[in-house]
Amino acid sequence: MIQLTKDNFKSEVEEHDGLVVIDLYADWCGPCKMLAPTVEALEREMPDVKFAKVNVDSEMEIAKMFKVTSIPMIALVRDNTFLDMSVGYVPKQTLENLINEYR
Questions:
Q1: Which of 13, 21, 24, 29 is catalytic?
Q2: Residue 45: what are its φ and ψ, rounded to 5°?
Q3: For tag attachment on the chain, is the N or C end more exposed, with fewer CB atoms within 10 Å?
Q4: How many structural domains are present in the chain?
Q5: Does residue 89 lie in a domain region?
Q6: Which residues pair with 75 in a beta bridge?
Q7: How far apart are CA 29 and CA 83, in angstroms?
Q8: How confident is the model over 30-60, as pLDDT tens digits?
Q9: Contact in structure between 17 and 79 (CB atoms under 8 Å)
Q10: Is 29 assigned a catalytic role?
Q11: 25: domain range?
Q12: Whole-prediction pTM value?
């Protein structure tokens, strides 16, 4: 999974043609650690979707861009347009359904 930074955000997200699922997390966040295996499993199951992650503690500019107030947060972006989000821990099926709405 791609680790997004302010240096690669433009090339990996803004200029990407297609859906990007972004996992905004922090290393100290328990629910983020619980959600990570789900996101990794969906990445393996959805090769047509780009998955990336952002550590909100080290990439505060990106966190501000998405107006992160609670984590984990999953943001969906296509063609440099914010589409939707999920906040907090959710079951795999819930996240899969959300992503499938925009595939």
A1: 29
A2: -85, -15
A3: C
A4: 1
A5: yes
A6: 22, 85
A7: 24
A8: 999 999 999 999 999 999 999 999 999 999 9
A9: yes
A10: yes
A11: 2-93
A12: 0.96
| 32 catalytic per annotation | yes
> pLDDT band for position 6 (50/70/90)?
very high
Mean pLDDT in the chain? Answer: 97
Measure the CA–CA gap between 42 and 65, rounded to whole angstroms. Answer: 24
Rounded distance, CA 54 to CA 73, Å? 10
Evaluate whether 52 touches 3 at the Cβ level (below 8 Å): yes
Give the tens place of pLDDT for each residue, 46-97.
Answer: 999 999 999 999 999 999 999 999 999 999 999 999 999 999 999 999 999 9
Q: Is residue 100 part of a domain?
A: no
Task: Say if 103 falls within a structural domain.
Answer: no
Q: Which amino acid is at 21?
A: V
Contacts of 84 (CB under 8 A, 6+ apart): 75, 76, 98, 101, 102
